[in-house]
Amino acid sequence: MVIYNPMKYQLLIQLFILISISTLSCKKAQVNDVLPEVKLNVSSPFSMQIGSVVSIRPELSQQSESLAYSWSVNGINHSDQLNFDYEPQQTGVFSISLEIKNQAGQSSTTNLKLVVLKNNTFKVMGYLPSWKNANPSVVKWDALTHLCFAFLKVNADGSLNDTEVSGQLQSIVNEGHKNGVAVLISVGGGGTANFSDCLLNESSRKNLTANLVKFAATYEVDGLDIDYEEFEGSSTGASTQDLIKRMALENLYSDLRKSLPADKLLTAAVSPSWQNPNWGYYNCYTNSMVQYLDFVGLMIYDQSGTWNTSPFAQHSDYQAHFIPSINHWLTNRQAPKNKILAGVPFYGYKFKDTNGGLAEAISYRDILSQYPNNQVELKDSIVLIFYNGKETIQEKANYIKNSNLGGIMIWEITQDDDDTSKSLLTAIKQILGEGN
Predict the structure, then answer these.
(1) Which has the closest alpha carbon to 406: 195, 124, 128?
(2) Looking at residue 24, what is its pLDDT?
(3) How many CB atoms lie within 10 A of CB 82?
């Protein structure tokens, strides 16, 4: 016989309630002690221009009032809120960290690499060829806003041949970013043979797009510069095959624009093709292609000296070549002013005689070296050589500035002279550099 004891029964109920509350509290504490997974709304590394604000909005797998947040930039605390807005005060590379702590004292850290680039009014883009094996520490980074490392080669199936660039690229990217300069990889170049086969096959072109996007992410470059130079040209401004190629090239631009992260640049080096509709490469580019590009670099050079019947003449004249090319891309190609980078040469052509014909390329540096006492930096020609001296480069830079174009493009920076009083890059900086 069981005797009912009300007090004992009430004690058992109270004990059960206490155990239940304790169990629930433990479960709640366990939930609070779990560190959430963190997903940032920006990629790492993330590139931005000085003067902009990066807004970081973490997405947590679970949230709790017991979690504590701490944002730091290069080890210095900046905020204890979950969301973080940061406006860098200088260019360079920054390490941003979010530390999350729970009540148990456990913590997790999520890191973001931030690259802050120059935001000058005018872009100064210089090409650096891989075959020059230039030490990135000797590049005049202070005079540049963008650097294109050339060239990444394309195979017919859309795979990449990075043999010439892979060994040097990372150190160039690192040095460029330390100096606030955007570093792009230039794809293609003169003398290529497989680019067209790749573009004309849709499967290969899609493969190329995927490989280029992956390459850009792997090497942390700030963008892709497409230098397609496999047009044939003709007496009607474009061959029948060229018309097919130009649409395939625009399709590549479109594919890349859709696939690249928003902070990556997409640019193109193009023939000036200014002469008239019945010559050369005039119709090898479409007006609609510019919508996919951040800017286009007009290769306004090699207008003489590169073929057997070339006249004995300047290859990058201010009046005859420079201005007509810019006007063509503004008027006939309807490119926005701020997307045009007008190209200038840091080299000349040395003819065999005054009859013209195929000439030998010679760097501005070597011209000065061969004629040390002739003040060749103030001229555009000497003996059998045509080139651009300081005064012509300054005239072109002033035209860019006064016309509010996007900036200037240079082939190529290793051909400049080290003497700042004669340097073409220094002359450009004095006109188009920030504060001018």
Answers:
(1) 124
(2) 45
(3) 16
